[in-house]
Task: inverse folding
């Protein structure tokens, strides 16, 4: 058996096992050393391949696809800095618990550390940002080594999804010649149809003594609070709102909680808390007896201040598998259990828990005050503000839509202006590391599922990932991008740095003065720039009828935007503080 046959059989068994374990999509960035992987994955009839030239963008594309499908996605690249360009997306995937399988080709051992071209140290390249790393053996075709290849493929798919999902990394040292031979007979045959390592995985639940202890801890407490931060399960909404109704308890729902939209009961959902928890006196007035949080820490910094102000409050954090996500540093009790099953068990077992009606009434009234002010109609023909553009987007976006939301001001305005709706909407964002990079590519990865995706993004984040648009052109993916252009880093206008007139614009404001229309044209997209509310409404409606790239730009002023937001917050605070509660 020659080198080519050994190489082909070894890689084919690895790839076939990936497919047997449920891998259906792989994003490939072309290169020479990765030829055996790239060609074999493309040849396998059970795997869809997506070609993306830029590794950095490709990795975020894979991330978005995995978020949308809730299944592992593989990435393949050649050796050297190609693999290093995956790093930002891998960090995001690790912190946001997204399953990725990273397959990096490498020089064989004799070409490492000797000055060979395109050879860098790839062993544990991503450090602690992957759940598992394995350096694959050099290709062989003995029965033992083909079983080894299958074993590692099955393990990689399992570990990417096990517990808290995340990225895994396998590094393939490969010798030349690199082109596989697919004419080899019985190449894909395998006696077993199932995975090489089948697994049974059960759900974590609290036993009866643990449930009783939890309920004893909450008994007689009248000012409870549920908080639902970023999470991806659509099933949690029904379970937590049913429990909230049973306990008569408010739910602070983050925009990424998947709870603000849908057909479930929303009477106990508080969606405007970020606007009124900004004032210290209001935070102190709303002192809770206990807090139970589901999902990650909410986007809202005002909520962070709230839990810091009430650090003595009994706090429970529900994690499905493991983790200690508590950035406020408060003493907390962690509940490691399936959150949906926990809500259902508590609903059945908690007859004695019933919060004070005045408590939930107070939250509801403050929420109503916030909504009234945030949605106060402006004068006709006034120029659009950033918040109003977000509000209008949620009016127009079609039922059963997925929205990808950029970081910095985009997610904060969505937090403020996305109120509860009976529409069924799914919101995604890269809130693991909260970077502005890769947002275009991530949203297009979500669009690879065939859905028309909506992306809300700022100008700096859009500029940062312009090359991500190439994959949309290549595969005719459908996307509407609402581009909020305030010519720079609008989020910094809300931070203390804004007070430094000498350095602010150069270091933080960072205006880029780009006419994005030319870039959109380059990638064959549809572009419009709108100034007024009705113009935006018409442009959004049109965009959902057009295939391909649709970009609607709303130009705003950072200084005016800051004043507009501050005036809204002051009006909300004044009305709440002037009331008798």
Result:
């Amino acid at each position: 058996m020659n080198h080519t046959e050994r190489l082909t059989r070894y890689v084919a068994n690895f790839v076939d096992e990936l497919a047997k374990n449920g891998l259906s999509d792989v994003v490939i960035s072309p290169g020479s050393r990765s030829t055996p992987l790239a060609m074999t994955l493309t040849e396998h009839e059970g795997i869809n391949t997506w070609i993306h030239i830029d590794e950095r963008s490709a990795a975020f594309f894979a991330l978005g696809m995995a978020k949308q499908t809730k299944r592992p996605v593989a990435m393949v690249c050649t050796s050297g800095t190609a693999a290093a360009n995956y790093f930002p997306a891998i960090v995001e995937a690790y912190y946001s618990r997204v399953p990725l399988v990273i397959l990096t080709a490498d020089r064989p051992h004799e070409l490492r550390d000797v000055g060979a071209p395109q050879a860098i140290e790839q062993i544990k390249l991503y450090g602690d940002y992957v759940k598992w790393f394995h350096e694959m053996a050099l290709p062989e075709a003995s029965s033992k080594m083909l079983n080894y290849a299958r074993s590692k493929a099955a393990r990689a798919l399992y570990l990417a999804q096990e517990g808290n999902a995340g990225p895994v990394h396998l590094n393939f040292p490969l010798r030349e010649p690199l082109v596989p031979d697919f004419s080899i007979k019985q190449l894909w045959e395998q006696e077993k149809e199932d995975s090489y390592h089948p697994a049974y995985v059960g759900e974590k639940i609290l036993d009866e003594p643990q449930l009783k202890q939890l309920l004893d801890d909450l008994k007689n407490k009248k000012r409870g609070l549920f908080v639902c931060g970023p999470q991806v399960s659509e099933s949690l909404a029904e379970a937590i709102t049913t429990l909230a109704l049973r306990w008569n308890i408010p739910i602070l729902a983050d925009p990424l909680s998947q709870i603000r939209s849908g057909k479930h009961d929303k009477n106990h959902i508080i969606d405007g808390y970020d606007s009124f928890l900004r004032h210290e006196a209001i935070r102190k007035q709303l002192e809770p007896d206990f807090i139970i949080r589901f999902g990650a820490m909410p986007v809202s910094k005002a909520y962070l201040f709230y839990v810091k102000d009430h650090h003595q409050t009994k706090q429970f954090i529900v994690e499905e598998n493991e983790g200690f996500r508590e950035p406020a540093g408060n003493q907390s009790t962690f509940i490691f259990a399936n959150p949906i099953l926990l809500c259902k068990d508590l609903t059945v077992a908690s007859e004695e828990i019933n919060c004070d009606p005045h408590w939930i009434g107070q939250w509801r009234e403050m929420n109503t005050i916030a909504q009234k002010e945030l949605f106060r109609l402006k004068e006709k023909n006034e120029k659009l503000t950033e918040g109003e553009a977000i509000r209008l987007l949620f009016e127009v976006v079609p039922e059963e839509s997925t929205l990808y939301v950029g970081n910095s001001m985009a997610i904060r305005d969505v937090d403020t202006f996305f109120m509860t709706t009976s529409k069924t909407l799914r919101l995604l964002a890269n809130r693991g590391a909260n970077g502005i990079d890769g947002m275009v590519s991530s949203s297009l990865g979500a669009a690879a599922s065939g859905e028309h995706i909506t992306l809300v993004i700022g100008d700096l984040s859009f500029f940062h990932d312009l090359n991500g648009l190439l994959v949309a052109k290549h595969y005719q993916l459908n996307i509407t991008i609402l581009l909020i252009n305030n010519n720079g880093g609008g989020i910094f206008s809300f931070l203390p740095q804004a007070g430094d007139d000498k350095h602010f614009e150069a270091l933080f404001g960072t205006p880029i003065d780009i006419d994005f229309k030319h870039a959109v044209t380059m990638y064959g997209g549809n572009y419009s720039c709108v100034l007024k509310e009705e113009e935006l409404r018409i442009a959004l409606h049109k965009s959902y009828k057009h295939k391909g790239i649709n970009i609607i730009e709303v130009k705003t002023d950072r200084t005016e935007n800051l004043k507009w937001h501050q005036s809204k917050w002051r009006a909300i605070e004044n009305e709440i503080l002037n009331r008798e509660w």
Observations:
- The longest strand covers residues 100-106.
- The mean pLDDT is 94.
